[in-house]
Specification:
Elements (H helix, E strand, L loop, with lengths): L1 E5 H11 L14 E7 L2 E7 L3 E8 L2 E3 L2 E6 H8 L6 E7 L4 E6 L2 E6 L17 E6 H11 L15 E6 L4 E6 L3 E7 L8 E6 H10 L6 E6 L3 E6 L2 E6 L18 E6 H11 L9 E7 L2 E8 L4 E8 L1 E2 L4 E6 H9 L5 E6 L6 E5 L6 E7 L7
Helix pairs in contact: 1-2, 3-4, 5-6
């Protein structure tokens, strides 16, 4: 079997797929990529036994069909330093050897029998199907994934992104207990309510592979697994099983005090003030009055403090409230609008942060829990 394709195309596909492969695997063959050549196309598969990702490449030339497994380390090291040029693979499927010809040289290495590579099981017929525009799904995952947690052993559902599909919208939600993100996609809905929890690893893979002009992404899922099809590939993953908490119950219905401020100005101020906060609490204090917000931090143990006054629009009662600085920075960095609106009730209730201008066909809301002030 012989086939030719671009070194740049191959390298870009492998670099994304390599994120699926684990460094240590119970099945040694899963440390490699499955190559399948058929009808002028190359399908490359990577798996960690819970997540399977496939990517399709169009071949410049192809002579014959075949399957083999190549060591991920070998092929990645072989192609990552090559400039853009044609690569020709000559594969002996009887001896399991490969020769790769490039502009000024040749690689020779062995491969493994593809029959030993685990086969993916098809989903049963009783599945729910929804469709996202690729750019919108990538944006929502990017905007949400930072709020998941990796330390909730008692509630593993909090380790993933929750897709809550209703007849009116699809809500994409994540929370670690101290902050929460809820994105409502008004263009994605389903007559029958359904939901699933996407683990962080496949979410990260989708974030890296999807593009703004990548067409539609079709998600088919049941209570255990999902098959996610995108422009030139597919991701098959195991879902997190369990009941997600009632996230709407923790979102205040009406925080009457609204603060409007330039997002980048607030981010810059937080970055200047945060180094002076206590290392144990990382507390940042907001003192808001009409037309002004004072951002401050203090570490009593080391006698350090910082304070900065910023101009803002504020139509509420004067208030002092504390937040965890890094969590607030995460929220602000994952919003895109020039200005944000911070909705407050009192120093003991959660603050709601929304973009001053919502994305098209979406409603973005982020929540942060307050911290107790000593004064």
């Amino acid at each position: 079997m012989k086939f030719t394709l671009s070194s740049t195309t191959l390298s870009s596909k492998l670099s994304i797929l390599s994120k699926v492969i684990m460094s240590k695997n119970a099945m040694p063959i899963l440390e490699g990529f499955l190559f399948e050549v058929s009808e002028g196309q190359l399908v490359i598969t990577a798996s960690d036994n819970e997540n399977v990702m496939k990517s399709t490449c169009q071949l410049s030339e192809s002579d014959g069909n075949g399957r083999f497994v190549v060591s991920s380390r070998t092929i990645l090291d072989a192609v990552k330093e090559l400039p853009d040029q044609p690569l020709t693979f000559e594969v002996d499927t009887l001896e399991y050897t490969v020769k790769v010809y490039y502009q000024n040289g040749t690689y020779n290495f062995t491969v493994q029998n593809a029959d030993e590579y685990p086969q993916t099981q098809a989903l049963p017929m009783d599945v729910t199907t929804i469709s996202f525009e690729a750019g919108a799904l990538q944006a929502n995952i990017t905007r949400t994934i930072f709020a998941t947690t990796t330390q909730e052993e008692l509630r593993p559902v909090m380790n993933g992104i929750y897709f809550d599909i209703t007849p009116d919208f699809t809500a994409i939600v994540a929370s670690d207990g101290s902050k929460l993100v809820r994105n409502r996609c008004l263009s994605v809905k389903n007559e029958s309510p359904a939901s699933f929890i996407l683990p962080k690893k496949p979410a990260s893979l989708l974030k890296s592979v999807l593009t703004k002009d990548g067409g539609d992404v079709v998600i088919k899922f049941n209570d255990r697994n999902a098959v996610i099809s995108f422009a030139d590939g597919v991701l098959i993953c195991r879902l997190i099983e369990g009941r997600y908490p009632n996230y709407n119950s923790v979102i205040p219905k009406d925080n009457p005090n609204h603060l409007r401020i330039d997002r980048r100005v607030l981010i810059s101020a937080l970055r200047r003030v945060l180094p002076f906060a206590s290392e144990s609490s990382l507390l940042v204090k907001f003192k808001v009055i009409q037309g002004q917000i004072v951002v401050s931090s203090e570490d009593i143990d080391f006698s350090t403090s910082a304070k900065e006054a910023l101009v803002c629009e504020y139509d509420g009662v004067p208030m002092a409230i504390g937040f965890k600085g890094p969590a607030l920075l995460d929220i602000l960095n994952n919003l895109e609008s020039d200005e944000v609106i911070i909705e407050l009730a009192d120093p003991s209730r959660a603050g709601v942060i929304v973009p001053a201008q919502q994305p098209d066909q979406e409603e973005v809301l982020m929540l942060i829990m307050p911290m107790l002030l000593n004064d």
